[in-house]
Amino acid sequence: MKIHNKIDKSGHIPVYYQIAESIKRYIQENSIKPGGMILSERELCDVFNVSRMTVRQAVNLLTQEGILMRQKGKGTFVSALKFQRPLTSLTSFTMDMISRGFTPTSAVLECAEAEALGHVAERLQLKKGEQVIRLVRIRIANGRPHAYECSYLLYEKAKVILDMNFTNQSLYDVLEAQCGVRMSKAKEAIEASVCPDEICSKLEIPPKSLTFHIERTTYDEGGVPVEYVASHYRIDQFKFYVELNLN
């Protein structure tokens, strides 16, 4: 089935957006599976009779939405299905991946004592300069980087983790088993934002890519804030959803 190439160049809807919608429709109608290659930018220019810049805007939009992915020197492909993460329960990255049949690991970039400053102190209800533990990890599933996490934890409640290896361990499991800290609830905020270049490099995504920037404060059963974490999740790998009920 051919791609629908009729676009309105004189209307109010941007041409690149119309092209992006046509590509989406083409993928759906042809049941192109994840990993399937789509037409090259040059071919799309010929199909829609537009400039390379306009086509690139359309492809960039679909890449940011996680529908397409580029492979340098090879072409543009349909992305793999996204992980769907519910917003109605408190789960860890490790639990999420295991529940989907994936093997989670972490590349630990830092695990050290630090001072609570600014919003970190505020979120953990500490005085400026009080001691915390800073744990920075790249979260990996089946060998692919999916998220960057920077966690700050109360020093007195979590100091045992300084001597532990988190390559293959869940932080929440260790806190419960080794520290007697059981996470009970969390407050979380999610927004799309441009990822810092140094983090893009670690997540193996292009510079200036959009990611889900997530800030979460997690509380123990006594209502004490134990962890503040700032994360960048690859927008091409995750979808967040919530189930709503009519009261």
Please supply descriptive tags for the structure shown above.
247 residues; alpha+beta; 6-stranded antiparallel sheet; 10 strands
Task: Summarize the structure in short.
This protein is of the alpha+beta class and 247 residues long. The chain has eight helices and ten strands.
Structure in words:
The longest helix has 15 residues, at 15-29. This protein has helices spanning 15-29, 41-48, 52-64, 93-99, 118-123, 155-158, 171-179, 197-203, and strands at residues 68-71, 75-78, 83-86, 104-115, 131-141, 144-154, 183-194, 210-220, 225-234, 238-241. It contains 8 helices and 10 strands. Helix 1 (15-29) packs across helix 3 (52-64) and helix 2 crosses helix 3. Helix content is 28%, strand content 34%. It has a 6-stranded antiparallel sheet. The model has no long low-confidence stretch (mean pLDDT 86). With 247 residues, the protein is α+β, with helices and mostly antiparallel strands.
List the topology elements.
Layout: H1 15-29, H2 41-48, H3 52-64, E1 68-71, E2 75-78, E3 83-86, H4 93-99, E4 104-115, H5 118-123, E5 131-141, E6 144-154, H6 155-158, H7 171-179, E7 183-194, H8 197-203, E8 210-220, E9 225-234, E10 238-241
**What proportion strand?**
25-35%
Low-confidence stretches: none
Global outline: elongated
Q: Characterize the main sheet.
A: 6 strands, antiparallel
The side-by-side strand order for the widest beta sheet comes to 4-5-6-9-8-7
Give the fraction of residues assigned to helices: 25-40%
Q: Which structural class is indicated by helix and strand composition?
A: alpha+beta
**Average residue-wise pLDDT:** 86
In angstroms, what separates the terminal alpha carbons? 45 Å
How are helices and strands ordered from N to C?
HHHEEEHEHEEHHEHEEE
Rg estimate, integer Å: 22 Å
The number of helical segments is: 8
Q: How many E-type strands?
A: 10
